[in-house]
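I'll show a typical protein example:
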Amino acid sequence: MHRGVVASLCLVQFVDVLVVTSATTAIPAVLADLDAPASAAGPIAIAYPTAFGGLLVLGGRLGDRYGPRRVLLAGLVAFTVAGLAGGLAADVVQVVGVRAVQGAAAAVSVPSALALLLHVSAEGPERTTALAWWSAAGAAAGSTGFLVGGALTDALGWRSVFWGTVPVGVLLLAVAVRALPAPPPRDAGRSLDGAGAVLLVAAATGVVAGASLLERPASRAAGAALVLAGLGVGALFAAQQRRAAAPLVPAPAARSAGLRTGTAVSFVNTATTTSAAVLATLVLQDELGASPLQAGLVLMSISAAVVPGSALARPLAARTSLRRVAAIGLVLIAVGDLLLAASAGSRAGIVAGGVVLGVGLGIASVAANQIGTSVPPGIQGSASGIVNTGAQLGTAIGVAVLVLVASAGSYGPFSGTAVGWTVAAAAAGLTAVPLALRRSAGQVAGPP
């Protein structure tokens, strides 16, 4: 395994996920500096994750069609240029546009980076280790973004959050040009499914943007309408894929039980951890008086614990099936969520729950990625896009549901926040049950 290459590819994942939350932390400073209304906060917050989640499958398909190295380079160029433009933005409309472009560039980059990582790592323990690094990078980036965004905004102003992506992007481009292999396109003979791409982007955009709007009482009706519209378009997409001559989701991917399992676990992973971290952020700032930077420091317990959790996935995978490894991770996520609920929102309780949550997330993320990407090489880009889309949808829907639950105030003697964390624990625990009980015939370890 080429460790330097794997590290650079994991850095692509880390930076692309980091920017989701780092710029969100800077929103109040953006609004104040640009004299923008409070209503602009929503578009700034959802522009990046909406474009990211909506375009991931298309980004993966482009990697299969044109070659992952070429597509990754294009994505890195767009991401870097957009970061420079964000630092120079003169009004809030430009900020929203830059966030959307960066999200689209990330959606193109991440599936191709994962496809290249799978290309340079041999199946077995070597690939499990590479995927552990990849999963740790993505899982740690989410909560680290709050800290990075808060620190940069406090020290250098909100524009530094965008400018900070420029040198990182240049570095990644230099490494990609010099060191990354250039495997030939695996599916170059197939045309792109334009109609399917439009339908999928519209469906994912509706769900992600609508779920984000559900978090605020004033926009919940519009959010519910968008989610329903997104689901309706998703049904049209599924019907269109069955008739398409060259579907956006290739037939082998659609038939892959492993890809379905990996995507489902990725969805639940983020739905029950990112949402829990968002509730913890609200408690820290609204109830415990922490600043954004202080809240980010407390939530670093999750990021710090993801790394050893990811490392644990390899010895666990050597002893049992990947489905059961995923179940172990989900059970730990459930325990972490229950610790948060039982802590009554104290700082010590959030740290303790965050540690257990992070370990579980690290284990489950590695298992989900390996299960979901154990597909023929020609569709690994598409598979990685689908798995990552599951994670993005999990984040959007999980946060929306838990914020709705928490916003009710109280449920008898229990606070809405505690009930929200308990709902997340139940979702993780219930998902773990069939994974722990079901095992493919003859399977002891490795992908299903």
In short: The domain at 3-182+248-437 is CATH 1.20.1250.20 (Growth Hormone; Chain: A;). The mean pLDDT is 84. Residues 125-156 form the longest helix (32 residues).
